[in-house]
């Protein structure tokens, strides 16, 4: 019996096919700016669109396989399923990083780094808040001394303080 | 004779106080990052690449080369003492290195590993001195069709580097090329794939993508795996005795030669040569049963092989612009950031730079030996730094690195976004190396393709009607077959080691 082997490959294949259509749309738009039908800024996007759609379809086909092959693939796959706590911690870290980008613009480099590193030390290292605060102060201070004072990299001072 | 003279000039420049300092800092920082469990040469260079941006090109590349060698060396420390192979190429070192460490002979194993790395590294650089200019000289005859064929060769290399699913490799390569297309089109000057977002008109910054895919991803993987300090085996004195040196001399030489000559083949990674050297040593040994139980030859041969391959990889990198391993792909990005496009004209247009960097590799290898042997205890202590402290520090470095190239917050956002994507790619086995390589080579491929088509008046057959490009196409096909066969063999060996219980990355 042929059935779906893995959902991630299926999703990946569909995304690739979708990307192929997006790229081909852009190739079509760019063709109007080119003097030649075959050579111009649109040529490579057009080839890539074909690659995405053709190979995406092949992967889509491959994401279905026989039960026997499915069992073998599962046995070969050493990927450990991360626990829920690890996964949520990972998501929190990821969200923190995006918040950091926003905070950098709003609070400026020093405060944003202090806050973000405090949260990261707590999240990743499981340190107590006080210990995390200590680590984050040391880290922010060192980064400030090296990159802003010594190497003179100019970071945003924050729109809040402008 | 000219080559020797140029090398001597290179030495006179490399031995200036500033450049020596850069080589030393690079070697130390590289070793430092390399010994941290989970961080290999690729992520080490990715994290530190933007930070060298404040230096002059020569100094920056000297430091990057030092970081590369240092991280390779550092990887063997974790392989021997912790049984953690940071990179696939360190797996054979673990096989006998860790049993030696458990017997209290970790020190001599580290010493032999350092000596083997030094010897093979020097052998590789000697090869670079003689082979690279000859290859570059030939490549000067290249026109657009030859360059296009060369890019196709790089494409086949991309497949062999990734080792996993062929379809996924090609799709990731296509994704990399697509990312490279974002920005202004080379022939019309019209924006492509910008969708009205002004930041996208300048295209994606290479560094942000590299930092995201290698450094941020590495940290996210570490968080998921809950990396913690490992139990460190005993070291003892790091200076190997006469008996160990005698046993290791021939394996070092054989491993170095295997590593160097196979390393000349683009796509033949250090992991392949390290395994081949290890298996060869086991075959020629009078006591093959000792292997896997703490044979010093089992450390000397693969360490020599992987370092010789790493050095040999600079030959196609400098002379053709083709990186043969992921760390060299990042190094290629580094060269391009400094406005130095590796390839045939590099030797012609930037001779002092190239020869200074080559000379500094000799210096860097010697420094690694001199600095690291007496400092092994420092590195051993470093492996105990908790991941909970290292991870936030690395993430903060990543932010600064991504930001500092163009002073753009958008690049930081891109780095984090690709960090997340890289994590998903890793989790679902989509290889990232083809993406990076195609992103780097994308503009060159497009340029050579447009020129080729213009030369052939729209007829692509010009590519296989010229002798050099035809040879390159045949070489690409042959390399593809060889690489697939060698990769299959290496994957089989890795699978065997996994089945024996080794935690292979």
From TrEMBL, chain A:
The keyword Transmembrane helix applies. Residues 11-154 form the DUF1468 domain. The keyword Repeat does not apply. Signal peptide: none annotated. It comes from the Bacteria. InterPro entries: DUF1468. The chain crosses the membrane at residues 43-61, 90-109, 129-151. Keywords: Membrane, Transmembrane, Transmembrane helix. Pfam families: TctB (PF07331). This is Tripartite tricarboxylate transporter TctB family protein. The lineage of its organism: Bacteria, Bacillati, Bacillota, Bacilli, Bacillales.
Automatic annotation (TrEMBL), chain B:
Pfam families: TctA (PF01970). The keyword Translocase does not apply. The chain crosses the membrane at residues 20-49, 61-82, 109-135, 147-164, 170-188, 200-217, 257-278, 353-373, 385-403, 409-425, 432-455, 467-486. The keyword Nucleotide-binding does not apply. Residues 20-437 form the DUF112 domain. Keywords: Membrane, Transmembrane, Transmembrane helix. This is Tripartite tricarboxylate transporter permease.
